[in-house]
């Protein structure tokens, strides 16, 4: 009975965080989302004060590419068990290709690449070919989901290419999560509690080197470190961010689903909302900051 008890306590730990509610912040967030054409889930926690704001924070949403955070954990779990070496050299095969704009997908059959470079590409540039390769090497989604279950994440799961999860894949796509769980998973990484401190630090370093910085990250000063992962499919936009802010770290995750706006443009309603939420949070937690996004910066994106 010991393992189930540990799992139960871990889940309760995630839930109990919602007891200290920042009602003022929740009201501000509700005002931002009230006219959104679709469903929105938001979870925010200021780590120093332990106050939270939550809107549908325990509702299931598609992860899109945010599922790459659990996948990278699955790979590092395998590395720590000495089942594959972090310094291993891999051989790319055309059969691994996921059609798109991936860097790894531009490789020729038989080219070599370091495993640590594949792990970096999966997070930093959100390379889908690298991510699916890592999911395969980690032992498929079943192995990753087992780690999530053991560590108290009852809702976050890999669905794609995972036996028995075909119905979930049809509904949520590659993966599923809740805003609270995805945010708290990143908090665990920040605190050195994912597998061990060494692994957590390596994952965190990859997460602070994100190429896709046009949404939530664009509303945070470029000289402030932030670890993040983004996701997007036609009817959903999502981002999880942990900001190492001067007055204390804060984490937030925003996910949408059933969006009416499915355009892949800068002014997509979901991406606009993510920017607005990030801007609100930066100014809420750092009221003395005089930084503002540069005018016309959107022309670069």
From TrEMBL:
It catalyses: a beta-lactam + H2O = a substituted beta-amino acid. GO terms for molecular function: hydrolase activity. Residues 41-256 form the Beta-lactamase class A catalytic domain. This is Serine hydrolase. It comes from Ohtaekwangia kribbensis. Keywords: Hydrolase. It holds the Pfam family Beta-lactamase2.
